[in-house]
Amino acid sequence: MSLFGIAAGDLAVLVGSMLAAGVASGVLAGMLGVGGGAVIVPVLYQLFTFLDVPDEVRMHLCVGTSLAVIIPTSIRSLMSHHRRGAVDFKALRIWAVPVAVGTALGTLLAALIPSAGLELAFAVFGIVIGLQMLVLGTRTLKVRDDLPGPAGMSAYGLAIGLFSSLIGIGGGSLGNIVFAIHGRSMHQAVGTGAGLGLLISVPGAIGFMIAGWPEMAILPPLSVGYVSAIGALLLAPVAMLTAPLGVRIAHGFSSRQLEIALGTFLLLMGARFLFGVLV
Q1: Structural domain tally of the chain?
Q2: Which class for 263: exposed (0-12), middle (13-18), buried (19 or more C-beta within 10 A)?
Q3: Domain region containing 62
Q4: Dihedral, CA of residue 136, residue 170, residue 232 and residue 202, to nearest 10
Q5: Residue 195 vs residues 45, 109, 219, 272: alpha-carbon distances, Å
Q6: What sections of the protein cross the membrane (predicted)?
């Protein structure tokens, strides 16, 4: 017996794993402002490997689906942080256009890069940022007492949008560092990072849908370009419901504790993908 071309046993594993990933994604989105993509991408990669998705489109499908899931997760997380007064909407307004441009460029670049290249980009991101957060923390790298002007913020936004769309994250972890090295609290960094995830995930998901359309013949059932509809529909509602739990957890810890949690998580995920590229 099969459904949508997937055997019943495989489908049960797929559903259970994606629901579990949705819980982890939502909690992390609220707790660390990372949108959950750092969890979703590796989980989806394992599941799509299990389902024999071709190597040449597997990582692209992971990234596109991750960005689609981040949309509702970021909305729920942003609303929860806003109620606690931890969102800098002025920064988000400045970031809106450059982040969208960077995301569009990243999506275009991702369509041209082989799957192994995207895996390596994810690995480098996780290891470098994770080690920096664990060993130095953001306070040690403080460069000034407040955020730069519109030109500096736009440059940050362009870079964050480009790199985040390459690896399927909401950009919150990168936004966290920008805020922290410019004298802002980690809690405000996490809250604003949730809004940043929304700015990246909407154009990013649309871009991956369009970019993957020519590959529909080799993509799994219920895919819309490089976005798995079944993956997004299973992950997104659970992640959205559990995001407020992560917000409550975040506001129960100190800034340094959040830095250590984020650094540890990113390091583990980066190491996992580096191992996959090298082996």
Answers
A1: 1
A2: buried
A3: 2-278
A4: 180
A5: 26, 24, 31, 28
A6: 12-45, 57-75, 95-113, 120-138, 158-181, 193-213, 225-246, 258-278
Alpha-carbon dihedral sign for residues 97, 266, 272, 21? negative
User: Given phi > 0 = left and psi -120 to 50 = alpha, else beta, which region is 219?
Assistant: beta
Give the number of other CB atoms < 10 A from CB of residue 83: 12
| SS3 of residue 87 by DSSP | coil
The residue behind tokens 């809250």 is: 191
Average pLDDT (131-144) is 67
- Answer positive or negative: Cα dihedral of 160, 161, 166, 169: positive
Alpha helices in 33-54 (DSSP H): 37-50
121 and 166 Cβ atoms separated by less than 8 Å: yes
Spatial distance between the Cα atoms of 134 and 138, rounded to a whole number of angstroms = 9
Q: Of 22-26, 52-56, 150-154, 225-229, where does mean pLDDT reach its minimum?
A: 22-26
How many angstroms separate the CA atoms of 254 and 81, rounded?
Answer: 16
pTM of the model: 0.77
Tens digit of each residue's pLDDT (9 = 90 or more) over 42-91: 777 877 887 788 888 998 998 899 888 888 878 877 888 788 888 889 98
Structure tokens at 202: 């909407």
